[in-house]
UniProtKB/TrEMBL annotation:
It holds the Pfam family ABM. GO terms for molecular function: catalytic activity. This is ABM domain-containing protein. Residues 4-93 form the ABM domain. It comes from Halotalea alkalilenta. Gene3D superfamilies: 3.30.70.100. SUPFAM superfamilies: Dimeric alpha+beta barrel (SSF54909). It comes from the Bacteria. InterPro entries: ABM_dom, AI-2_Isomerase_LsrG, Dimeric_a/b-barrel.
């Protein structure tokens, strides 16, 4: 069973973390609570650079990710977090061989 994986690498502007993180966490929680196709939404912090945040998101398929992009909560997050983001890199993957304990 394959899954659609998204990673997002944010480099925040200096001093932007305190305003960015509540927006990010609200978006992550809403995604898990309101989107049936969102299975995982992890928010990671780079241990050597707290201004760098990475997301690891797992969706049932590409359509579920598109539903995420079309959601009201993502629109709010995207708009309100933009002033704190210096750079954002999105990558798309297919999970083909899940190996878990």
């Amino acid at each position: 069973m394959s899954r659609y994986i998204i990673t997002v690498d944010f480099k925040l502007k200096p001093g932007g973390r305190n305003d960015f993180m509540p927006l990010m966490l609200a978006n992550a929680r809403a995604s898990l609570e309101k989107e049936a196709g969102c299975e995982v939404f992890d928010v990671l912090t780079d241990q050597s650079d707290p201004q760098r945040i990475c997301l690891y998101e797992v969706y049932r398929d590409a359509a579920a990710f598109q539903a995420h992009l079309d959601s009201a909560h993502f629109g709010i997050f995207d708009r309100e977090s933009a002033p704190y983001v210096e750079r954002k890199t999105v990558r798309e993957f297919t999970l083909e061989y899940p190996l878990r304990r």
